[in-house]
Design brief:
single chain; 383 residues; alpha/beta; Aspartate Aminotransferase, domain 1; Aspartate Aminotransferase, domain 2; 3-stranded antiparallel β-sheet; 42% helix; globular
């Protein structure tokens, strides 16, 4: 694809393209670059229509088999999986309760969350009307505190896999407590997909409901899946957009609609991820990082070094003679066309603040991006 063809797609609708050097599969940048295999599967899915209920049932069976879970269900992203999981824990497949959500009157609606794991995505489980009950605080959470918080209004316990900490109650301990009280555990494992065995770990541990994001293993930005105990996965499916269409009851999940191409893409992306040569993938990243380092190290005032193993990043060290701060350079990169987003302090970007370091990742770059980055940096630094 030429430079003109690459930009025309977005320029036609007035949206400047972005070069993703953050190293993340960011929702705000559109997620992931889809592989030829996934794109081909989506194109094949586009050729015919299908009963979505049957497609979701069959795709769920395949996903469950691939990861060793009792059951699975494809969803419109990880947050949709979490919202449907909460609805399942609160109302099950009771048609009266399902129709009333998010009015949770008369049903267990409290979801316990650890004080060390408060984060913005916790709102996803409140969509069906759940209330969050914090145990402990940022300094720590003990197993006894979790157990003491369980009451007759407890619907589930939420555990964030990426926020696990030493000297804080572990997922294993939470599962043990929940089992004793017959309370389900919902795990947000959005990006917990590497090494590939990591995806299989949660069903093997006996997690009741685990939510994953598809973008982290090569599926579309708006896709994901939940997996776990068959009874609860089926209850979550009961609250889905397909269930709404076949209703009554008219369930809470109608806004979380999926396209048939996305469902097929989840299956193909997961198959590809679980069989991929990841060592070769990282070797390719290292080669690209070395090429980028050589380009940027030739710019006056910049020393470029490779990141840590596995090498996917190039760190830029600025000489004292450079008048601009790392944050000012990063902002100038972002403000240009195409906009270049760098890896450092991405949360600062999203808050409208200046980052204090400068680092670039190659995992989201496409052919020609290295040259574009070099050219832009030279222009910003007056080279």
């Amino acid at each position: 694809m030429t430079e003109q063809e690459r930009q025309t797609i977005y320029d036609e609708i007035g949206v400047p393209p972005v070069i993703n050097a953050t190293g993340g599969q960011l929702t705000v940048l559109g997620g992931q670059i889809l592989s030829p295999r996934v794109l081909a599967a989506m194109e094949r899915a586009n050729e015919q229509f299908v009963d979505m209920k049957t497609l979701l049932e069959q795709s769920g069976k395949i996903v469950a088999e691939l990861i060793g879970a009792e059951a699975a269900y494809v969803t419109a992203g990880c947050c949709a999986a979490m919202a449907l999981s909460a609805a399942a824990c609160m109302a099950g497949q009771d048609p009266d309760k399902a129709a009333r959500l998010p009015d949770a009157t008369g049903m267990p609606h409290e979801i316990i969350i650890l004080g060390t794991q408060r984060y913005k995505y916790e709102r996803c489980v409140t969509v069906p009307g759940a209330s969050l009950i914090q145990v402990g605080d940022k300094s720590g959470v003990q197993a006894s505190q979790v157990e003491e918080a369980i009451g007759d209004q407890t619907a589930a316990i939420l555990f964030v896999a990426s926020h696990a900490r030493e000297n804080v109650v572990s997922l294993e301990e939470v599962l043990d407590i929940a089992k004793r009280h017959d309370i389900p555990v919902i795990v947000d494992a959005a990006g917990q997909v590497y090494p590939p065995e990591r995806i299989k770990q949660f069903p093997a541990m006996g997690v009741d409901l685990t939510a994953h994001s598809g973008k982290y293993f090569g599926a579309p930005n708006s896709s994901g899946f939940l997996c776990g105990r068959r009874e609860l996965v089926e209850a979550a499916a009961y609250h889905s957009f397909v269930s709404f269409e076949y209703g009554p009851p008219y369930t809470i999940g109608r806004p979380m609609k999926l396209d048939r191409q996305e469902i097929v893409a989840i299956v193909e992306a997961l198959r590809e991820w679980l069989t991929m040569d990841h060592e070769a993938r990282f070797a390719g990243y290292r080669q690209r990082a070395e090429e980028l380092r050589e380009r940027l190290d030739g710019i006056s005032g910049i020393e470029a070094t490779l990141g840590e193993d596995p090498v996917t990043r190039v760190h830029l060290h600025l000489a004292d003679s450079i008048a601009k701060t790392p944050g000012e350079i990063a902002q100038a990169l972002r403000d240009g066309n195409p906009s270049i987003w760098v890896a450092s302090n991405i949360e600062a970007y999203l808050r409208g603040q200046q980052p204090d370091t400068l680092s670039l990742s190659v995992t989201g770059l496409i052919e020609g991006d290295e040259e574009r980055i070099e050219r832009r940096l030279r222009a910003i630094l007056g080279n």
